[in-house]
Amino acid sequence: MTLQQARDLFRIIQDFPKKGIGFIDITTVMKKPQATTAISDAICDYYKDKGITKVVAMESRGFFFGSIISEKLGAGFIPARKPGKLPGETYKATFDKEYGQDTIEIHKDGISTEDVVLIHDDILATGGTAAAAIDLVKKAGVKKIYFNTIGEIDFLKGREKIASDVEYYNLFHF
Fold this sequence. Notes:
The protein has 174 residues and is α/β, with parallel strands linked by helices. The chain is built from 5 helices and 9 strands; from the N terminus they run H-E-E-H-H-E-H-E-E-E-E-H-E-E. Helix 4 links the parallel strand 3 and strand 4 (76-80). The chain is globular.
């Protein structure tokens, strides 16, 4: 399956999770294992020589591909979760989204100063989650941070919230 064929499998659900939001649904992509393979292979090909040691992925849709990417890159997987879901000591960041406010956390002992971290999420929208995740990983003082999404909603300009010292790569524009 080509990347364009995989991209064509995304669907937009209007007025979800609330009126006025056009939600980009990734579950229709994941029904086709060839699409999952095409997307994860393209991402891993891009990052294969970057020395990634950990992949941090956002709850919950970022987990779908984040764990696949970490396995293919031979890197550890670190979940970024909602408050109260991680049992250990955490770093925490609160941020604004296109339809409210949210908080994410990662374990403090999940990454170290020696790590090169790839932060992965499914879709970049307003950039609030991206900025919060980058802030969390920076608190650990890692060597290098990369940020990746499968797709980006261009008109929301979320890319503008990604720190200038973080390289951003995505596959698709919506």
